[in-house]
Amino acid sequence: MAHDGADVERHREMYEGQYNSQLARWSFHDTKDPLVRYVRDRRIKIGVQRVMKVSGSNPNEWDALVICGGVGGEGTVLANLGFCSVTVSDFSENALEICQVRDPRLKTDVVNAEAVRFPDDSFDVVLVQDGLHHLPRPMLGYTEMLRVARRAVIVIEPHAGLVAKLIGTTWEKHDDEINYVFRWNQLMLEEPARSLLLDSPTDIKAIRTWDHGLTVEKLIRKLRLGSGRAAVFAAKCFYAALNIPFSWLGNMMIGVVVKTDIGTRNDFERPAG
User: Fold this and answer.
1) How far apart are the first and last CA of the chain?
2) pLDDT at residue 16 above 70?
């Protein structure tokens, strides 16, 4: 069932008393500030654009599953991009309750990311953003994504490299929980996919990029450009100046695995191996 903006607001108002403080904590997911939306959504859009380019498709033809989706920020981005159906999964029932209040367009399901209970090929695309490195067994979570995805996987996680070794965080603390920051690269993205998918035609790309959304936002605010087009343009210029010559040193990986049909791959060659 489709929901317009008024429907979403009415839905939220019904639960303001119960969830007001928690909704305020996650308000950046629903902001209309163009600068915040740009720095927040940039990585997901890069991954989705890569998937659609390789597959020659459009988001409105795909359904999506978000792993480690929490209160549904990534799910909202996918819904805004036009995916026909978006399911947000997480092990936290409380987070998913907030997700349902935040954005009634999203479906929710309590799921263990290391043992996803959906059958093989259940969703067109499965996405995770900064979630696998919270798991005790991140690679198991990744292979579960590959199994459940019918057409593509998007993995947005910290990249392993020189910068990570020099200034990266080894241990990450959230409230009372502490986890090791598991980092990725092209080989780690590719080898499990090749092993699981065997001879299936597959396009695998680890897009390395710099991404410090909060830092970039604060920098642009200091330029006093407001929050509109000028501010977004300045942020795009900053990322271009950093990523075009220095993406090979980037702190973030946008990993994209597309299960392609050899007959509709257009100009993409089947990767060796």
Assistant:
1) 44
2) no
